Each structure stands twice: as structure tokens, then as C-alpha cells.
Protein 1
Amino acid sequence: MLRVFVMSAHLQLEQEDRPDTYVTGSFRDIHRDTRVVQKEQNPVWNETLVWYLDGELLDSDPFVTVHLREWSTKAVDRNFGFASIALGAASERPRTLINIKNLALRDDNLKPTGCTITVKICFSPAEPATDLPSKKHDFRKFICCPIFAKDSETEELVPKETDIQEATPMPTPKKVLVDKKQVFQVRVGIIECRQLQENNIKPVVKVSIGDYVFRTRIKFGISPYYNETFVQTFDERPMQLFDQFIDIQVLNSKAIRADSLIGVFRIEIGLVYESPGHALMGKWLSLYDPANLNAGLRGYVKVNLCVLGAGDQAPDAAHLPDSGDLEANLLQAAVMPAVRRAMLQLFVYRAEDLSPIRSNMDVDPTGGSVDPSLEVDFAGKLLKTRVVLRDANPVWNQLMFFPMQMPSMCDLIKLSALDGEQNEDSSVLGTAFLSLSQISSAGNDMGKNFPGFLPCFGPSFVTLYRTPPELMNEEDNLENVGSKEGIIYRGRVLVELTTYMDPDPVQRIEAVPEQYITRMERYLPQIRYGLCVIFYSATMLADIKEQIQFEVSIGNYGNKFDGTCKPSASTTQYSHAVYDGNHYYYLPWYDTKPMVAITSFWENISYRIASMNAMLFIHNRLKKNLDILKAISSPKDPVVGAVWKMLQKELVEDCKRPLPGWEAPTVPTMLDLQLRKLRSQLLLKTSKAAEKTSWKTPLQKLIAKAEVWLNRIASVASEAQVSMPDVMIWMLCDDKRAAHTRVRSHTIMFSKAGPHARGRMCGKTQTIFLQSAQNKGKAAPIPVVLRVRMWLGELADSAEFLKCCEGRILIYAETYENQKKTHGIWGTRDLMQHPLFRCHWEGQPSQRKVPTACGMAVGWRVGRGAPEKALAGQRDKPHRSARGSV
């Protein structure tokens, strides 16, 4: 075997000429190329070119030629010279590296070009011919992982012994391999990476198949998705090929070369060939740092590995069964120390507002026909609570234990509310997700002041959503209902999550201790919230003959088809669409705009949403200034200094402003305390870094610094403990739901802490495009465009809403509640004794008719000149067109 190590080169060129260069090595008319180094006058490769001699000596051709060339899209590449290197010294001293530094290159006329190259040469004679090694691995014992890969030539592959006697996949029958040259194809598919133990990185995956090197595209984040496949064909003896390695390295493209390595994994090509089907499909590789094994896992990369001979059928990666158990598909290197194990415990207390869904996308008002249970899925492990019969507000009080390793391969915890006693008969009522990245922190950027914290959550409600079959795509299977977050509110589940280190975790489920149930209640005091929506216009309507109205709801509050909540003015008046004279129709609201108002009860989470909005305010303002900075074309533009000073001033001002906090008697959760500490430390560190950065720094470095700050702020701006559902706006056509949109609650939330802590669209006019509810995901025209103004906040702050209104609020119909004071307590008891109070909700139809002889109560009188307000709330006249002067 002849190896030529191409180290570096020097180009004698003009100052502005920086070409893309690569090296070609030629030996016995066989060519090998290095990778392309871009825009470098002194390129560095550090790559090896290999020629297999098949036992022959170096007597017939004692020279190897190296060419330094420019890579370009032109028909003929530019040549910077070549050099012929005699191999006599390498033949006399086998297995010895011969250094050749600054070897002068010559052109075709043998004149020096001024360029030099540095290489190393090594010749390794062939070993005596032997039969193929009989190294075989019993994959029946460890095909379900963990598999321990070979890390060096002195380490033997040690399969993990198991006592499982059940049927497992058998190795694929192979034809007898003879010790002669054969054609093999090695395929390496890089699917994705997860939980890379770095922050603010741009990872790239470097794949080495033997002596051939490939690289993926550069991505951003700690969990990038690639889906790239690299193929290399070999014409070698099996004994030579199977002893080579597939090296997978994850690098940080932003770091300098010495610090760019994040983690590596090495596996023998022969081990892949011995696998069933000659492939390892959908496997997760655990990355490690070979220079610091005690650092533990550095992340995971998902791969598809295949080694195929002539006539072998390649597996279809697109139709592989997904078991969901990630840890069962994990490959770990034998050199790695034992992984850190932890126990994730999930307290499932109770749920509310669970009810079966009907075909018209409305919930059953009674909710009595639901038999709910909660199924939790984490990293392919499933646990399920008991079934509570005929209860829309079930109480479980069960504790689930899930083993996990740190860092976790899986980021999402899926909670699914089911209706039915058995799994095969269960239907998904709603789905919610918890992201571990939002409820934990590694503390990599905070230094010693903040070491990070393990996943924790609540006690807090998580909101369940579901997409009904009416809104699903035709290609979606009903079995996938609940695999993604839906659009319709389906209830809430009260859960709590804690994590602790456990060397021997066991998956199980048990009852919640009584003291935890008592402690949980202090986190759940509710307050009254007010939601107001003003409709300014509804345009771009189709030719709809039915009467149209809009409904606003938050949870079950405002849902006109739901009977579990008190009624509210949540719908606009009925209207007929009017032709606009061009292409579309609109609703004739003219100078009087409809307005809806809803009162609801939720937990006091205003401080959480205010803190999240404050972080989003900093993020949005920094992003706006950064976009202005990126728009500057020339680094020498004098406006660079002014733009950077504005960015610096606003960022420091925002970071030094204290975050909104909670007030007594609100009790913060553990996640509230940890997030506040993390955000405060990050803002303090960012403000100090911004103050030290001068506008005289090169423009590209200024942009890079601002992008790092932007990404760090975005990583901590999310809030998982938002127990309030989002706001839904529905368009109803003759009481049938025709279109919808979902507005995030935090975007319209009001806060007394200031404008920086309010939602981005709180009290502001916005344009909303509704989505059709009848086309099942097909590309369809926009059903309607709304111009609305929305406000959400505590009812005690409702006076602030009037400051957002541009007109005068008129009440055409109102509903009020009759109450009676009994023993000093106001309530609705004993109201049936008086005929005027047969229904305690005035304006709603009573269950009993008032007697004809019912008279006025003593001391009551009717004022004159006051018309009945309820009479003004009539439907629009059924006109299909209107005429006006222009």
C-alpha cells in the first residue's frame, strides 16, 4: 500500500488572486484527488491519497506525480505546476514516513512556477496471503442495541450479552467471499443530529469512508436536519475493505480548526456488512470526544449505513418501520464511559373540559359519554393512566417514572387524552407536547454563575388540541390523528414534572402521595380575564348565500354550541355578503363595527406571559436593528457607526430593564425561578458584551456578534407554562363552521409593567387571513380577510382597553345575572320563589312561562322614554347588493 499525505502548498500569485485549489496524485495511471480549499493562498489539506499494490513491489514505476490545480467551472482547470517524486527511498525504508517540504513545482516546460507543496510518503508492503478472517459477530444477541463499535486496531468488538431468548432478526445469508478484488458500494446517509453539546453553533458532518472524505451542508442549531447520502465504490479485496473504518465527525464550522470538533463515532466497515441486510438503518450514533472521554456524550447523529456487494439489494430507507424506541436503536462505542442515567417523573393530577368531538367540529355539551385516560409517550416508552368512566373532568393522581439518559435523545414528551377502555378501541381526544429544551438548560454559556438545571415543569395545566377529520389532508391516515398539535381546543391536563439522577432507573407507574396533591392546590388560584375583539372589516368573501357571523372563543368560553360555560357576547350579528363591484364580497358594517366581549377564568399567569413578551420585545428590536446593519453594502459606509450605536444603545437599555415578576399571593414554580435566573444572567452578560464592542470593529464581526446575541435571547424567550388556551376566531355560515384562525394568547396580552411586556398586537389593528374548514388541506382561496383589534388582560385592567378604542362603544343588548343575598352571601339560590326570577340569566329563554297575571313588584316602576335595548339587536336586512355615490 502506498500512501501520500498531502499537507499544504504555497501559491506565488498576485495579492488579489486567491483561487480554489486541490491536489491530484497519479500513480500507475490511477488518479486520486483531495478536497477543494477555497480562496487560500496557503491552502492546507492534511489528507491521504492511497494506492493498493496487491502485493506488488515498487520496481516497475518508482515515481508518483502530484499536480496542484485550480478548481473552476471552466472546461480546462488552471495548473499551478507538478512534481515527480521518486519512491526509491520509500521502498528501501518501508513503513517509514518520508517528509518532503516545500517541493518546487514546475510547468510543462519544466520551468519553476514559484509554487511549492509539502507532502509525506509511506510505503507498506503487503502481508503474507492468508485466508479471510473468520471474525463473525452473533447479531442475534445484540441487534437491538446497544452495539459497541470498535474504536482502534487493538480493541476487539465486544457484543453486549443478553439473556433474551425470543425471536430476533437473523443475519442475511451471504455468498462465500473469495480473497480477490470485488466491487463493493458503501453508503452513508446522515439524517439528523440531536442534542449537540454546544451553543450557537453551525454544525457540519464530516464523513470518512476509508480514505475518502465527504461533508454535509452547514446547518444552524443543536438539532440540525440534513438528509444527505454519500456513496463510495471500492474495487478491493474483502479483507482490505472490511478492516477500514467509517468515521463520522460533527464539527462546528464557526470555530477555529483546533476547537471545531464536537464529537466523533467510528465503526468498522466489516461490522456493517455482517449486519442483517448488510445495513444498519435508522441507527443513532452516540458522539464522544476522543481527547476527553470523561466529558460524556456530546450528542447524537442518526444514520443509514449500507455495505453492498454485487447483486445485493439495497434496503428502502423511505419505508422503514419506525419503532419509536430511540434508545433501542442506539450505537455506543466501547471506549466511552458509562452514560449518566436519570429518572423523569411525571405527576398526572387531573383534567378538565374533556368531551367527545362531533362530526361538525363541536364538542358534546354534556360531556357525559367520554371515558378518558391519559397516555404519555417519551422516547418510545408508553405509560397510560387508568380509565375514568363517564367523566369530562377526571381525576387520576398517578405518578409515572420514565428512565432517560443525559443528554436525552428525545426532546418531546407527548401527552394524548384517549376515550375508551382499551387501546385498540380508544380515540384521541386531544394532544399536547412538552419540550425538554424549553424546561431545562445545560448552562453552557452562563459559566460558573449558572450551572444549568434538569427538566422541571409545573404544577401547571397543558392545553390539549386536536385536528378533526374534517380538517385533515386526504393523504393523512386517521391513525395519525394526534401525531401533531391540532387547532381545536379539547381540554386541559394538570401535570408536574421533575427529574433526578438515578444510576438504575426503572419504568413504572404508581399513585401520587397525598402531600403532593395538597401542595399542588396552592399553584392554581384563578382570576377573571377579559377578551375584547373589534371587527373593522370582513373582505375578500366568496359568493356566500347563507347568513354570516363570526365567533370568538378562548377555551370553551365563547363557544355558542357549548353548554358548560356561561353565555357571553361572543358572536357578531348575522350579515349577508354584499358584492363589491369587482371580484369579491364583503360584510356591510359601515360606520358601526361589531364588537365581542368574553369573560373567562384562568390561573394567574400574567407574570409569565409578561416576562416572555419582554424577552420577545428585546429579540424583535435587536432583529430589526440587525437587519438594518446587514443591509449596508459597503463596510466603509459611514452609516455603519450610527446604526451600530443605535443597536448598542437600545440593546443595553433593554437588557438592563428588570423583567416583570410575580406578586403575592402568587406562588412561583421551580421552572419560574430557574427561568428568571437564566434570563437575568443572560441579559446581564449580553449588556456587558454589547457595551465593550466598539463600532470600529469590522462590519462582518459586528454582524456575527449581534447574531450570537439574537440566538441566545431567542433560546430562552419561550414559555412552556402557559395554561391559557389560544384565541379562536370562527366564521359561521348558518351556524356551520366554515373558516377559522388561531391567535396566540401572549400576542394580545396586556401588562401593567409597560409596553415592552405587552403582546406585540395588544390593542393594535391587525390583518388576519382565515383558513378554510371545508377543503381538507387542499390549496384553496382565502375564505375571508379580517381587520380586527384584539385585547386580552385581567378584568381589573379593562379600563385600559378603552384607551385603545377609536370610537364610542354602544351596547344594543345585554345580559345580566340576578342574584339574591342570603345570610350575607350573594347567590342564585331561591330565585324561583318570585315569578320574575324564574331564570337567573335575563335575556335567555326561561324553562317556565311567566304567569299572565304576573304584576310589578312593590316599589318598582318603569321609566318612560327608555326603549328596550334588546329590540335593536336585529339581523341585517337580506339585501344582496347596495348602491352608493362615489
Protein 2
Amino acid sequence: MRAKVIAITLLALIVAFVKANASERDSLLNLLSASKGKDKVEILIKLTEVTSGTDEAIKYADEAISTALKISDELLAKAYLNKGFALSENYLDNEAIEYYRKALELAQKNGYKNSVLEAYKGISTSFFYIDSFKQSHRYASLLLQQALELDSLRHQAYAFFRFGKIFQEQGQNDSALHYIHRSLGLREKLGDWKEIALTYNGLGRIYFDLAQYDSAIWCYSREVEIKEQMGDQPAYLAIAYLNIGRTHIAISNFQLALEQYQKALRTFERINHQEGIATCNSGLGMIYENLSQSILAIDENEANYLKALGYHKTALELFHNLQKKKEEGQTLQNIGNVFSRLATNRYVARFGEMWEDSLYKIKQTEILASFDSARFYYEKALNIFEELHEEGEIAKVNTNIGSIYSWARDWDKANTYINRALQLARKNNLLYETTAALYAKGESLFRQGRFDEAEIAFIECSRLSERLGLKETLRYSYERLSKLYEYRGDLIRTYAYFKQAVKIKDEIFSEKSQRVIAEMQTKYETEKKEQQLVLMKNKDELQKSIIQRQKLMIIGAIAGSYLILMVALLMFKMFRDKQRANIILEEKNALITRQKQEITDSIKYASRIQTAVLPTSALISDVLPDHFVLFLPRDIVSGDFYWMTRKNDKIVLVAADCTGHGVPGAFMSMLGVSFLYEIVNKESILQPAEILNNLRNHIKTTLSQTGKIEEQKDGMDISLCVIDKQNQKLEWAGAYNPLYQIRNGKLIEYRADKMPVAVHINDFNSFTNHDIEYHPGDAFYMFSDGYVDQFGGTNGRKFMLKRLKETLLSIWEKPMAKQKEILYTIHKDWRGEENDQVDDILIIGFRV
């Protein structure tokens, strides 16, 4: 199980390889020699952590237990937990469970509540790693129950995360997403950035498995952003780059994939991490292997294939030396793919555009001989995967071997291999592998002249490829369908599919993309050579500088001694005078700094309170799975707020913009949330217009607003909807802020009343209630004015509503998570470096 979990993060790379540096270990050992009692146990536990994954860690854990036995049961429980951790990190999870249970028994007996939580957590984790999902779920449930009683959000978050991972392994990805989103909400509440990054990684992996690649990229990018801000260790960042890169490969975004893989490779080479270097070489090989723009670009294709072969062979040697069997098998398969492409390329060079038809003139034995190298590597890969019981990889290799026998017209063997691949892919719900097997099946049937069956296979393959965003496979499926209809004499469909194939090819291989890829490769190779030259130059210069420095030191020592004596006398007098002045200045600065820090701390604390009352992403996802909230406060706290609740099977969703921003706006937002809770949940008012009427009355009463000129006109602009899923209806009312609905590419704007939720000349009028019917797939948007009022662009103008409408119309069909990413990127690009954010920004998008 452990190998399966780890491998899923990347193409082949295992995580958790960055260990504490030697200096930290040595420092702890120095402290250990002079320590006694409880301090000694704590240092031994820390040594176990920093040497985790080694036999040395187990030795320290044993010593911690023997020392703790003489001190206290509480310390002994911690030592048992520590031994469980050390064993688990060494993949000895059955033994780890024994020690976690010892810790649990001791902790329950003596009422050590935190140790009970940690023991449940450890037992659940170790059962998960040995594929005992039922037991893992049981202990995660016990952990959650205890964590709820003790109000430990950190352990609640872990329990939800573990539920998600269990459901993911069982193929229940919807449930997995639900629980990991709940975990994310709690971790965001705690501000635990390390765990937040880990959670985004978990979400990215699920979205990747679901072939929701845009969402996967967004999650992985969020992980990178957090890790970069945290200053995470280089190797962990490199892993995150690779996650993004391999997702781009899956959807044929080779330019973006290359950028991520080269960033990762530079990082791994800098820290000399062999497994990371191997994984990057494997990914770069896959990129160059798939750069064929046209089968007739023979020389260019040959060059790319040979470059890919070089990368793959480097990866193979490294993986073999590291004894990484699965990764070695994957690389052998990749090498087989390249040799298969080289063989095909040589037939194209020999026969030209009609090379496929020309194969019928060649003997089967000759064709098989031309694919000998490919078959050799495929068979070696297959042996490894069967030994490891990796059914997904077995499916891929069977597809590839079946395709070779199809070229050689050995239909029985072709059908056997391809059908086995399709059976395994469907059995394990492996969508990517299913498309590959369907395409191979269509190819084989097409060559046999069984056009009706081939048509079914290609159409199913194209539909699945389109749904998954697999441009490369979709392009080839369309090319094959075009050829099939040409054989049938159906010229209309021949042209239609040919046109679609060309369109996709142009999307993948623009001249700009090809140029950028070449530039990236050149840049990487140049940087590498420059680094080598700099190292050599630095070595020579260092030797010269040592000799020169020795000469200067002798002369300088003589002259400097005299000069220092003279200067010291002068400096002493100046120092005394300056010291007196500095004491006075420091006292004033300390007072100002302390006051500023107190104010900032208060505002930050207020921000935590404000964040706590806003609904979490997980909470909204429970009722509106396809949604986003783009929330960008201008200051630490915000005058914009959003709110959501469920009442009587209806969903109330609010986007509000309070008077001002910063602290004054935040104060109003807290009032707004409090009043909305009372109006909806206590008074059970569920008509949007009535909610706004009541909210206005609450604000006027609380702020003593009578309409006099000298009074503050504090209030809020708001967009509020009530969603009735059972009857597919949505009611809405707005104060200044509108609602947008997009259906079939057309934007419908529901205009708000021209008055705020506050005292106003027309505040005797009721707000207008709008009844809206919605259809599946309709997109809705509510927002404040911060996004459209942002200055930027080439002329420093406002973004404006018109531009927002155009943007939404161009992206509305995409997943909501992707829309959020696009809107954020557009805002950043529009604002640029020279413009500050002018106001709080809030946009909510959702589908019901």
C-alpha cells in the first residue's frame, strides 16, 4: 500500500526523502550527552524525528522508552508513540501498531487525552498504509469522536483527511473530495499552512484521478504558492512542480509541462537528489516523445525521439541504481514507446504518406523485427508490473504490445493483448488507460476492415478523450474517423473530422509553443554549462585570492595596528555622545513600535474572528459542490463579506459590501453576519426582499440612523439569493449589487434596487423580490464593486462592468475552480505592479 500511495503523487517519485541536515542532528547529540531525565527523553524523541526513515531513528526511540520507564507513565506514553512513528517511517507498520496500542492503553488508563488522540491518529495511519482500510476508518472515527469532545480542530482535520484518503483508495472519489474539503476548511481556520499545502496536494491527486485536470492544476498551484511563501525545503517544492508538470503532460500542454519539469530538474540537480533527477528525466523524455507535429516531419521527429530516448535512458540507469522497481518498469515502457515511434518513423521515411497501406506488402516477420527493440523493453516492463501486481501499468503495456501485433497483422495476438488491457482498465476505472485501449482496439479493427466496430471504438474513445481533456488522443481519434469515413465514401464526415483534428493539432503545436520549448531547452543547457564554468573559475580565483590575501594580511596587520589605535580614541568619544542620543531615541522608537504592534495584533486578531464567522469552502461545497469564492481583502480585515446557511431545505447565499474597508468595514460586516443569522435562522424569514427589509431595520436601529444630514450613512450594498433545489427555483433581491445568470452563452442581468441596506431617502420602499427559474448548467455570479473598480491596464483605467461581463461569458462553461483562477490572474495582470488594490474584492460563482 505504502508504495501505491507514494507513487500516485508523481510519475514515480517517492515523497518524504528530505531529512534533517547533519548539523541539527549533531547539535541534538551534543545536548544529549549533558541531559538527564525528562530532558533526555525529549531530546531522544526529537532525534527520532530528525533521523526518521533510518535504523538510527529506531535506536533513539528504544533509548527514549528505556529512559522514560524510570521517570513517568506520561513520558512513557509519548515514548511509545515515538517508537510507533519511527517504525512507521521505516515501513514497519504492523510493528508500529503494537507500540501505538501500548501508548493508547497507558494514555486511557491515566487520562492523558492528547496522547490518546495521537495514538488513534498513529493507529489509523499505519492501518491505512497496510491496506486495512476498515480498521483505519474505525480508528479515524474514534479519533474524530474524541477530538470533537476535546474541541481539537487539528485532530478533527486529520480524521477528515484520513477519511478522504480511505475513500480515494476505494474509488469513492466524491466522498473523498467531501472529506478532504472538510479537512481543508478546518486547517484554513487554524492557519496551519504546512497541513493546508498537504491538503491541496491530496485534492490535486483526486482531481487528477478523476481526470479533472484543470482543477488538479489549480490545487497543485495553490500548494506551490503556499510552499514558496513558507520557504519550504527545495525538494518538496520540486515535487510540487512535478505534480503540475505531469498534469500538463496528461492534457498535452507540453510547453507548460516543460517549464515545470525543468524548474524541478534544476532544483534536484542543485541538491544532488538522484531520485528527483531520475523522475525529471523521465518526464522530459515523455514531453519530447510526444512533440510530433506531423508524421511527415521525419527528421524533426527522429531528433525529438532520440532526445527523448536519452532522457529515458538516464532515468532508467538512476532508477535501477536506486532499486525503484515500479519506476524502472515505467521507464522501460517509455523506452519501448520511443523505439516503437522510431520504427514507425522509418516506415514513413521509406513509404511516405501511404506508409500504413504499404505495410500490407511487407511480411509479418519483417514488421515484427522492426519493432524488436520496442517489444524487448515492453516485455521487461510487463514482467516487473506483473511481479508488483500493478494492473494499471499492465493495461498500458498490453495496449502497446497489442498495437505492435496489429501492425504485423497478427490479429489473434493483437486482440488478446488489447482486450486484456481494456478489461483491466475498465475493472479499475482507469479512464486514461481506457482511452488508450479503445484507440488501439479501433486501430486493430480498422486494419482488419471491420469498419463498423472500429467506428464504435473510435467514437467512444473520442468522447471519453474530450471529456477528460486528452487533446492528443482526441486528435488521433478524429484523424482515424476521418480516414474511416473516407474509405466509406462519406466525404461530409471525412472533412468534418479532418477539420476537427487539424484544429486540435494547431492548439497543441503553435509555432510559438515550439519556439518556446526550444528556447527553454537551450536556456537550461546554457545555464548548466555556465554553472560548470563558474565553478571552475571560482576554484582558480579562490587559490589566487588566498595567496594575495596572505600578503595583504601581513602588510595590513602592521599599518592597521597603528591606525586602529588612533581611530579608537576618536571613536570612543563619538560613541559616548551618540550613545546618550540613541538611548533617548530608542525609548521613543520602542514606544511607537510597541503601540504599532499592539494595534496590528489587535487587527490580526479581529481578522481571525472575521474569518471564523465566514463559511468555509467545505461548508459551501456540501450544498453547492461547483462553486468558487474569490475573496481578496484590501487590508488585514475586510468590509466585504459572504455568508451562507441552510434553512428548511433552502440555501441562503449572500455577497455584501459594507461602507468602507479595513477596520470600519469589518465592523459593519460583523454586524451584517450577526443580523443575517438572527433574521434567517431565528426569525425564519426566507424571502430575499423581506430579509433585506429586516436587515435594513436592524442597521438603522442599531446605528441610530434617522436620516439627519450630519449622521453617518453606514450600511451595505448586497446581493442575496435563496435557492430551492427541490423546485429548481431561485429567489433574489439586491441593494445596488446585481445578479448575473449565464445560460447557453447568454448573460441575463438582474438589476438591484438603487438604495443601500441603510438609511436612505427611499427607505420606506420595500426591496424588489425576483423569482428566477434555472436550468441545469446555468451559472450565477454575485459580487461587490471592488473587482470592476480596480485601476490598471495600459491607461490606468477602471476594469468596469462591461469587461467583467465579457470575461464571465468567455469562461462560464469551465469548472468554477478554474474560473476563480482565471479571474484572479486577470485581476493581477490588470492591476500590475504599479497599482495598489483600491477596494476589497468579492465574487461568488456557482452552479446549482
